[in-house]
Amino acid sequence: MVEPIYLSTRSEREKWIREADYNLFNLRSEQVYIDLLTDSGTGAMSDKQWAAIMTGDESYAGSSSYYHLKETILTLFGFEYFLPTHQGRAAENVLFSVLVKKGDFIPGNAHFDTTKGHIEFRHATAVDCTIGESGDTSNLHPFKGNLDLQLLRETLGKHPKENIPFIIITVTCNSTGGQPVSMQNIREVKELADQFGIPVLFDSARFAENAWFISQREPGYENKTIREIVREMFSYADGMTMSSKKDGIVNIGGFIAMRNKSWYDESCTFNIMFEGFVTYGGMAGRDMNALAVGLMEATEPDYLASRIGQVQYLGEMLSGYGIPVQKPYGGHAVFVDAKMFLPNVPQEEFIAQTLCIELYLEAGIRSVEVGTLMADRDPDTRENRYPKLEFMRLAIPRRVYTNLHLEVVAVALKNVFDRCDSIKTGYRIVSEAPILRHFTVKLKPTR
Ligand code: F0G
After folding, report:
1. By the 8 A CB rule, do 72 and 136 touch?
2. Which of 145, 147, 216, 270 has the lowest CB atom count within 10 Å?
3. Would residue 248 count as lying in a domain?
4. Residue 178 placed within a domain
């Protein structure tokens, strides 16, 4: 598919962003020139995926599309049991309804916001055990999604086993910049988890991109295929949640998969209540068919080389202009270090959000804040949680934009960078939701 895009004027964008209460989620897509809000559900499907759509089986129960997807999941990940869901957070909702209870602790590597939301919604606590190197954007550690094993061991030792239902490893780690987790780290986390008798789950949205980084960066994996690497990664997991909107290259969908039959049996009840019958769970048969094809395409090395190569291309251009970004560049996005970019804006005034708005005003480019707004308030004290890093994420949809679009993005951001000293104030909150506030927050300039 191709879609025309419209270049607006600065005065139009000033009006639109004001009407959107300075929240980029409130913009209409026609008001956006290049949309790097997310890589989620925004990819272009292939000819083979569209062909699979045409042969979708829409039977309520036991459709051939369900079995097509079930076999693909077994082949790729080695999990016998699976349930479709309408997207990733629905997968979290179903599985966490079985596993998470009040007072639990769930260690992981910088849990994604919906994952953390589903944990905190159940009055449990997400414990971030990411390695310290990920908090320094200039540190070139090749696996900045890794878990700190010492910290993990302390966390596992501190709470009774009954209060730690699982450890969750996010591959790649979105919140630290689309950063991969090494096979060695995955293996060591699993060994530690086994010592304590605690299961390991993967939040698998970008599993194929993680496997690509392992193939490129980890000794011993240079001659393995992406699918062999994926199979080994998941051999250390007891189950997975998946947002198919990323490395499934479909516009909507998700699933959970696991080895354990009793988890599956219990999850079926929640799936039927929240999502739909166990063989469709919120997905059309045609969409399950397209997903089965997408999962295989996402694990093709040529696709991954071009996809991740495009992200690196944008990262290199920005670095060339001296713009501070998380390095090494991530798999799905370039994360701009907004604290370094806008040193004069106070953190209480949402530095990264201020930068996102400036880039939109400059050239109609939509990005997303991964900073204080997204970090939300502490559920107990209701104080703002100030993360160590304030990021503006430039997420690249799969198979959509050309490198020329990315050159426009790089030059636009350089224009903002050239006047960064003059940007001294940010925004204040007018109204916000009690949880996951960044999606619907209303803001006003502080000056
Ligand atoms: N886990 C990770 C690592 C994610 O990045 C996301 C979504 C989810 C779970 C939830 O999946 O959206 O299908 O419900 N990330 C999107 C993003 C929204 O822009 O990074 P979902």
Report:
1. no
2. 216
3. yes
4. yes
Give the pLDDT confidence of 339-366 residue by residue, as tens digits: 999 999 999 999 999 999 999 999 999 9
Q: Whose CA is nearest to atom 13 of ligand 1?
A: 88
Of 70, 246, 339, 405, the active-site residue reads 246
Q: Do 185 and 308 lie in a common domain?
A: no
Ligand 1 site residues (CB inside 6 A) read 38, 40, 87-89, 112, 114-115, 170, 174, 203, 205, 243, 245, 254
CA 241 to centroid of ligand 1, rounded, Å: 10
Which 3 state secondary structure label does DSSP give 12?
helix
Contact 295, 76 (CB under 8 A): yes
Q: Are residues 290 and 306 in the same domain?
A: no
End-to-end CA distance of the chain: 43
In terms of phi and psi (left: phi > 0; alpha: psi -120 to 50; beta: otherwise), the region of 247 is: alpha
Whether the predicted model's global pTM rises above the 0.70 cut: yes
Residues 232-276 pLDDT 10s: 999 999 999 999 999 999 999 999 999 999 999 999 999 999 999
